[in-house]
Write a structure and sequence with these properties.
Strand order of the largest sheet: 1-2-3-4-5-6-8-9
Shape: globular
Structural class: alpha/beta
CATH class: Alpha Beta
Order of helices and strands: HEHEHHEHEHHEHEEHEHEH
Bound molecules: alpha-D-galactopyranose
CATH superfamily: Glycosidases
Distance between the termini: 22 Å
Number of strands: 9
CATH topology: TIM Barrel
Helix content: 25-40%
Largest sheet: 8 strands, parallel, barrel
Radius of gyration: 20 Å
Number of domains: 1
């Protein structure tokens, strides 16, 4: 049994150091974690070299009302990243969630025209991406546009603008920062073959039309039902999009490994030795696979969705229950699986 060690300890093993030169390792954080005197901030600096803002750069936060942009938290994040040599991900420009209603309405409340919606989208993208040009390395341009069955999600974006909003969003982001990597991001790509096939077909179509897609984000919200063999096959399938654009990369953008099957309310968190062993074995095999992809040039970043177990969204969704999905536990304690994952980097 190791002595408890904390992710913020100056001498703690470090994920970013273990994987340096092969894979960037990151977390989704919030601007209030960036106060230099805090353990959270020390943990971020010790462990991670790529960061995403969990919520504060989403449309509802950045442009709550048309034309009223709020940048202070994103500014803080970008200044912090730049000062500390951390790669930054912008998240997310176009999504059906956390997007204010006004995007989709005329003044009288009727549905906005396609032209108006696309113009608002372009303004949002130009303003945000343009402000951080050269400083935010990559953007999740569109998030979750597919259904698990492989169709287009019937969001307000889609209802009003059809599939065109996707290409237009990428074009606007590229104009605003031609050097940024532009990512299409979605969940269940590892588990739903039809969805992975649809993503493959969509990105192929976009690339063939000259749309500057630079990455596919596999969110990787995983759990006890995740089939690792299927995950590997679907990741390889999406990595094979590189035949159409050799610079395209995969990223694991929102990794966590829930203790529960998603919607199953009957499950309780009885953490037996068997479950602990399975959790550790799962993370070990997952990171061995990530390293294989990284060494082949297919994947360049893995981002955990949350700094530690205590702040994971999975404690509140789909319902309130204590969850333990990350490598860093409550109070920033390094879990045994953390050491296993560090071990995968050694061979
Ligand atoms: C999706 C979004 C994230 C986050 C998670 C849950 O995966 O991309 O921004 O909202 O849901 O917290």
């Amino acid at each position: 049994m190791q002595n408890p060690a904390y992710a913020c300890d100056p001498g703690a093993p470090s994920l970013k150091e273990a994987f340096a030169g092969r894979l960037k390792i990151g977390a989704a954080i919030n601007s209030w974690n960036l106060d230099p005197a805090t353990p959270a901030c020390s943990a971020i600096l010790r462990q991670f070299n790529i960061l995403t803002l969990e919520n504060e750069s989403k449309p509802i936060m950045v442009q709550p009302e048309e034309g009223r942009f709020v940048f202070d938290k994103v500014d803080r994040f970008v200044d912090f990243g730049e000062k500390n040599g951390i790669t930054l991900r912008g998240h997310t420009l176009v999504w059906h969630g956390q997007c204010p209603r006004w995007f989709f309405c005329e003044e009288d409340g009727s549905p906005a025209s396609k032209e108006k919606l696309l113009e608002r989208m372009r303004t949002h993208i130009r303003t945000l991406v343009g402000r951080y040009k050269g400083r935010v390395d990559r953007w999740d341009v569109v998030n979750e546009v597919l259904t698990d069955e492989g169709g287009m999600r019937n969001s307000l974006w889609y209802q009003i603008a059809g599939e065109d909003f996707i290409a237009e969003a990428f074009r606007a982001a590229h104009e605003a920062d031609p050097a940024a990597r532009l990512v299409i991001n979605d969940y269940n790509l590892e588990s739903h073959d039809a969805k992975a096939d649809a993503m493959f077909a969509l990105v192929k179509r976009l690339l063939e039309a000259g749309v500057p897609v630079g990455g596919v984000g596999m969110q990787m919200h995983l759990g006890p039902a995740t089939d690792l063999e299927k995950l590997k096959a679907n990741a390889e399938k999406l990595a094979s999009l590189r035949q159409f654009s050799p610079d395209l990369k995969l990223e694991a953008t929102e990794l966590d490994v829930s203790a529960f099957r998603f919607e199953d309310p009957s499950e309780t968190l009885e953490w037996t030795d068997e479950r602990e062993a399975a959790f550790r074995a799962f993370y070990t095999e997952l990171f061995r696979f990530y390293l294989k992809l990284a060494d082949e040039g297919k994947l360049d970043a893995v981002i955990f969705w949350g700094l530690h177990d205590g702040v994971s969204w999975l404690n509140g969704f789909p319902r309130r229950r204590r969850n333990v999905p990350l490598l860093i536990g409550r109070d920033l304690v390094l879990k045994p699986a953390f050491y296993d994952v560090i071990g995968t980097a050694k061979g």
